[in-house]
Structure formats: structure tokens, C-alpha cells
Here is the input.
Amino acid sequence: MALLTVENLQVSYGLIRAIKGVSFEVNEGEIVALIGANGAGKTTIMHALSNLIGKDAGTVHFADTDITHTPAHKLVPMGLAQVPEGRRIFQELTVAENLRLGAYTRKDKAEFNEMLEKMFERFPILKERRKQVAGTLSGGEQQMLAMSRALMSHPKLLLLDEPSMGLSPLYVNTIFDMIRQINEEGTTVLLVEQNAKKALSIADRAYVLEIGKIAKTGTGEELLSDDAIRRAYLGD
Amino acid sequence: METLINGLSLGGIYALIALGYTMVYGIAKMLNFAHGDIIMAGAYAILLVVGMTGNLLLSVVALIAAIAFCVLLGVTTERLAYRPLRGASPLAVLITAIGVSYLLQSIAQLFFTSEGQPVSTGAAQLGSVTFLGANLKLSSLITLGLCVMIMTALTLFVDKTRVGRAMLAVSEDRGAASLMGINTNLIITLTFAIGSALAAFASLFYLMQFPVVSPTLGSMPGIKAFTAAVIGGIGSIPGAMVGGVLLGVIECVCQSIPALSPYTIAIEFGLLIIILLVRPVGLLGKKRREKV
Ligand SMILES: Nc1ncnc2c1ncn2[C@@H]1O[C@H](COP(=O)(O)OP(=O)(O)OP(=O)(O)O)[C@@H](O)[C@H]1O
Ligand SMILES: [Mg+2]
Here is the structure.
């Protein structure tokens, strides 16, 4: 069943149309990757899905609900969370405060504590640093915090915008392991990545975005073995 | 000692007003130049309730009326004048705020003329107490005590509650805050409401010391408090408190020394310039990271 259905999405910055009619869907339980070069419009799509920016045309459905114009803050309690590009953790707040904000829409205290324990178990470093101001964490630790923060809201669908950006290979592996694990625990994932190889290898399906349009789609394996894709995105 | 207490209580008033400027700046990212006029509006509300009765109990009722009126006014101006401009250039918002300021003053003039009208809050009858040989006005002590209490409560609210944390999040990154499920418009409205309620307290405390209401009453304390907010580091809550108290104490000290008193305002703004030269972000201000 399609959890997210995007039809004919169009988005502009001023007079420049960045997204020129994009349609795709994410089924329940899947990891779907959206890959594309710098400036292809991946972040624009992510921002438009969460309604951080407006749309010119198109519709977005989340399960059976039309969320085309639902304000960002109302999407979180519906089960749609996003880890935005650049992580955007609250640098001046502590690790614990960031995690609390992730659970802003959840009022059950026992559930919160249970979730917090789970995050700390997954990333003991966050527990160690919980009273530390988040801006002092390393890039990789900030990414783990950003993902943990998003998970605190119990999302059905998690949007991830370049989670591996700027991280060392070791951390990249940790992050991709975590994505797979999150997915196995029942969260559907829409993943935007520059690291096409890694993304395609964990994705059930993927879409290739070229200057505001979907150029290709297929399963992760199909795209990994596609010659044109290998040349353009995998550097072979 | 007397000068110090008077300075601290005047500083407390400046700090209350400065908090309104600084919180709105930090969270809504705008300079609300009409904030001083909210104090004026509160002062008229107090005038209407207390008049010349000098009745202390009535002053308390007047305070509650002023809080209600200021909050309503502050939230309404935000809704009607500023919210439609969200995302517009900072200059457009600034000019709108200046326009709102003149509008509020003109409305006051329309209803109450431009004449100053005396009001008696009963503060004068409170008399004074002698402590360690110093003659301290009870009204100053009450002002000081209440300011400390209000600011402690505000600090606790912002640091310890869920909504306070949401305010800090919105101030740091509005987009990321909305991705947490925070209704950022609601938080901004709440910020205006809190700033306006603090302004209403400032109205009463100000009238206890300078008991005449006029349509331009808010201008001078408004400018001074804005200066205090900048000295402390605009956007910083403890900064507004420190800046306000510093300015109040300096003002009272200058005025108690005959040779300096004519230059009080020059000294205050001179201090602002010096502090900004040495520390452009203000005493407790943080350097904002440029967004990538
Ligand atoms: N705020 C903005 N104002 C104007 N143009 C913008 C804005 N943000 C993005 N763009 C333009 O829209 C296009 C798509 O940008 P977007 O950030 O969505 O790309 P992306 O695929 O996420 O790239 P990257 O891999 O570098 O993150 C680019 O041409 C970009 O220059
Ligand atoms: Mg991007």
C-alpha cells in the first residue's frame, strides 16, 4: 500500500521552476532512495513535502489523507518526520533538550522515557553527552542526534535528506546501518543521497532526479547495474 | 544606598520592557518599535481604573486590567500588522512597526488629547522605611522585589517548560522547530503576549515613579529599554535583565550627582556606543552563526 503518493509536484523559487512535475510513491515498509546531482532539486522536494515551502501545483497524499497544504507542524503528529539537510539540530540546546523537542507532540511520559532509553542504547555517546550543548558534538554525532530526535516522534515515514553528508566512511556505514535497522523496526524511509552507491544498495526502489524531473526509476539493484547510472552517479 | 535602590528599581522597569524587545527579536526576528507604546496603552488603562483615587487596591485591579488590555493589543498588532509580513524584508517589517507606533500614539491622542494627565496610584502614600540609615521608598522596594520575582519566573518558564523550550527552538531555527511539530505562529503570538504582559507591569511601576500619562509616555522608556536590550545583547534574556539594571543604576547615579545630571542621557547612550565598539553583539549576546 502506498504510504506517500506525490503527483505532478511543481515548485518554484521566484520565477525559476526548480521542480517541474514530479510524481512518485513510497509504499509502506519500503526504503525508497531519491538520487540526483547537486542542484537537481532533492532538498526542494523534501521541503515541499513537509510544507516548509509552498507548492505551485500537484498533490501529496499521506496514507489516505491529502496533506498538500497541511502545515509542517501538523504533519509530525500524523507520523511524518524529516531530518533536514544539514541536520539543523538546535546547537544552543543540550542533547537531552533536542531529544525532548523531538518528542514535542508526544505527551506520554513513560513512552518518552522508553524511547529515550532506546536511543541511548543505540548511541551510547548521546547518553554520555546528554547534558552537553549540541553544537559541541562532532558532525557524525550531530547526525545521530538529528536522526534520534526525529525518531522520538514515532514516525511512520521518515524523510532523510543527505544523512551521510560530510561524514567519514566509518560514520557513513554506521548511519546506513541505522537506516536499515530503523526500517526493519517498521519505519518507512524516503532517503535523499549523494552517496548513490550506498543508497541504492539499501533501497528497495529508487528514483533518479535530473534538473527537476524524474529521469529513471527501478529497484535498487536494477539501477546499481544500469550502465548510464553507473557512469553518471557511481563514478565507474 | 538610596540611589542604588532607586537605580535598581528603575533598572528593573527597563529590564521588564527590554525583555519584550529582546524576546520578540529573538523569536520573531523583528524589532518591535511599537513596544514602548504598549506601555503607554497600559498606562491609560491604569488611568481609567485608578484615576486620582490613590487607592492601592484599585491599583492592583488596574494592573490586571492593564495586563489584559496590553496582551490583547500586542497580540492584535502582531496578528494584523506583522504576521502578513512574515518572510518579507526586515526593512518592511521595521517600517510597519514604526507605523504601528505612530498609529497607537495617534489613537491615544484622539481619545485622551495630547495633554498629560496626572494619575495617583497610591505609591506616594506608601512612604518609606529606614534601613542602615538610608531612607528607602517603599514603592521602589516593591517595584524591585516584583521585578526580581517576574524575571525569575520568566527564566524558569523559558528554561524548564515544554513551551519555553519550544520558544528557544523557534528562536534558533524556525524551520527545524516546525519539523518538531511546533506551531511556530502560536509561539510567536505567545511571545508577543508575554512581552505585552511584562510591559503592563512596567506601566504600573513607571506610573508609581512618574505619575503623568500622555500619548508619548512610552517613547522614552521604550528607547531606553531598547538601548538596554542592545547593551545586554539583543535576543538574550539574561542580557536584557543585565542591560536594564545597568542602565537604571547609571541613570540614578548620574542624576544624584549635580555635575553629571544634565548629561545623564548622553552618558547612557555614550555607554551604548562604547559597549558596541568593544563588543558588537552586546554584553551577553552570542555571535549568530551564518546560515549555510
Ligand atoms: N532558496 C532558494 N532560492 C532560489 N533558488 C533556490 C533556493 N534553494 C534552492 N534553489 C535552487 O533550486 C535548485 C534545486 O536545489 P536543491 O537544493 O533542491 O538541490 P539538491 O538536489 O538538494 O542539491 P544538493 O545535492 O546540492 O543538496 C537549484 O538550482 C538551486 O539553486
Ligand atoms: Mg540538497
